[in-house]
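Sorry to interrupt, but I need a hand with the structure work. Could you add the entry underneath, on a fresh line?
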Amino acid sequence: MKTIKYILFFAIALVALNSCDTNDDGFYNAIYVDSETNDLVAIETQSNYVVGQKLYIKTNNFSRYQNEKGQTKPLDIYKTTGGAAAFNFSYVLEIKNGANWEVVKIPTEELDIIKGKAVSGDFVYGSCVYNSINQLYEYNIGMPLSKKGDYRFRFGYNSGSSKVELVSESIGTNLAMIIFGPTSNLNADRYYTFTVN
């Protein structure tokens, strides 16, 4: 009889362990969207840069209505997220020092904030803020280039080689949405490289 109780106990324990949700996306109620809009967030490139100029990162037609791969009707990302006020992403700027790359630490007050929000330090944490008048998520912020040298820029560590990852600032129990938006001007190593003279 004891043996049957132990077998039953272990069987119940195995079922309980197997039903535990270890998937953070399930816990946080996250969904993923592959946008077909190129350069939702884009690097405003120039043919050459000089000390004193800025490298601008901005949104380009980041509408609340997004075309998804394999879908015929645009997805209303504002409605789906319960009115997400912003979509957040990160990026980093580095300068070459000998054989090494060093992070360019930019104080937040030195950023040229035209649209959106940002906080910076070792990297920039940006927020594309929703504008209810034009129904676009907006971002246009410049980073000062204060030193000559070879630079490289890349989007946050979760972003793919040709995509930037944008995470919704959803409220309460509303869906958290993660959008993968294709972006241009990155090389195979996920960097935009340039020289400041």
